[in-house]
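[Meeting: bench + compute handoff]

Bench side (C.D.) handed over the final construct sequence. Compute side (W.E.) agreed to return the predicted structure before the next meeting so the bench team could plan truncations. Sequence as handed over:
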Amino acid sequence: MADKTDMAEDRTDWAEDRTVLANERTFAGWMRTGMAALAIAIGMRAVFGPFEPTWLAKAGATILLLAAFYIFWSAWRQSCTTLNRLSDHTAKAKPTRDMTLIFAALSLGTLATGVILWAL
């Protein structure tokens, strides 16, 4: 029969594994939120079309692009911070390198969208 110390350690290990997985789900949720802000910024072009003054519509879309970038950055920072504090036991955490690549790709896409928005 396992002693109480082993059982307590198992519960701690399982709780940390659940936290690792919850952190990844939270990261994915924030990435979706950032993508929604990016989609709304792009959609403003379609909705407002030849809006005058054009700089006003572009400024509104730029605010959404900045919000998307901030969401991506803060999700990446918080996710990596959480993973660095935890140790996985059974559940293998997605490496922070992968989260960094996702953050970088979405951020570069957001930046490119802003450049295209202001160029048109």
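W.E. noted at the follow-up: The mean pLDDT is 86. C.D. will use this when planning the next construct.
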